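Forgive a beginner's question, but might I ask you for the amino acids of a protein and the tokens describing how it folds?
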Amino acid sequence: MMGPAHSLSGAAAWLGVGAAAAAADRPMPWPVLVVGALICAGAALAPDLDHKSATISRAFGPVSRTLCEVIDKLSAAVYKATKKQGDPRRTGGHRTLTHTWLWAVLVGTGVSVLAMTGGRWAVLAILFVHLVLAVEGLLWRAARVSSDVLVWLLGATSAWILADVLNKPGNGADWLFSAPGQEYLWLGLPIVLGSLVHCAGDAITVSGCPVLWPIPVGNKRWYPIGPPKAMRFRAGSWVELKVLMPVFMLLGGIGGLGALGVI
């Protein structure tokens, strides 16, 4: 899928988690619901770090473009080193390493540890990066006609405000993990979810997604998981724009209302 659909599906997924948490008697404070949805929307773009033409490659100028080139080469090297007999030969690393459950878990775990141990500046950095990505994904038309500096300023300002809101007692710094020293441990959860939602979105396109790596399937270690080919579509097609994106908006709205106890 394309960037806007990925971000929208990520936000909808976190709002759905909020509804499930409320039903399980562990409701999210509204700042956790909002911040988690924005982080998940941004994280749903992150697996495309292996693609130099993806939305994320433009988000932070030369820094993100260089990072995408490095991740592409790393992913291609890992693919070549771990592929089995049935895996096809390929030159690039797109839809390989960063499109797996293992990558999602490792990145989410790293972010949780950083947020828990790094203090306010670590939380601000995590929020800034993902809020910029969320703007690029959810407001992509406006972001493309705006300067990068304006998008970064919006991300930095929003991160500062939301970090202050979260830090107030009862607003969710210790949501789900309430033991002393575990504040912000939950920040890795929307990142894992966003990455997995991205993989699920790519799995229903023509190429599928090797989300199960490194678990082999038959004679392939990079098996492209997906529904029957007749049910798949091309990224950016009318199915994505006219069907899936409205569905994501509807599901996100229902999830948000459920998380807030309205329905």
The chain has a mean pLDDT of 92. Residues 3-259 form one domain. The CA atoms of residues 71 and 221 lie 20 Å apart. The radius of gyration is 18 Å.
